[in-house]
Amino acid sequence: MDEKRIILLCVLLCILGLLLLYFFGETLVRTTPIGAKFSPSGTNVQFSGAIEKLTQREGSCTLSVCDSNCVSVSVDEAVFPCALLGKGSTLLVTGRIKQVEGGSKFVQASKITLQ
Quick count: other Cβ atoms within 10 Å of Cβ 29? Predict the structure, then answer.
């Protein structure tokens, strides 16, 4: 192949890659706990609040994160050690909205940052 065809092929592949990133890239919605509660299932959200309730299980924990309203957050030990969390701790939660069969929603945390 000559040099012009290689350059044209590289440019076309770059444009194709950018289009794929644009259409298949995930966006992060910055919201509040009540906003997360009413977001569609599968949405990536980020919000901050204080822990009102903490329930530890083997390998994970469930939090009730509140500002003026609360949302349930599920945290795996691999994401953040639950032993470091306590009632009243303020944190920044990043995660995906999940929905259980009964219709209630919770956030599956992918990142927790203590504030």
Answer: 14
How much is the pLDDT for 38?
85
CA 111 – CA 94 distance, rounded (Å): 5
Q: Could you report the per-residue pLDDT of 37-77, keeping only the tens digit for each?
A: 888 888 899 999 999 999 998 889 999 999 888 999 999 99
The CATH number, out of the four listed (1.20.140.10, 1.10.579.10, 2.40.50.140, 1.10.620.20), of the domain defined by the range 28-114: 2.40.50.140
Q: Are 13 and 68 in contact (CB under 8 A)?
A: no
What is the C-alpha to C-alpha distance for residues 74 and 93, in angstroms, rounded to an integer? 10
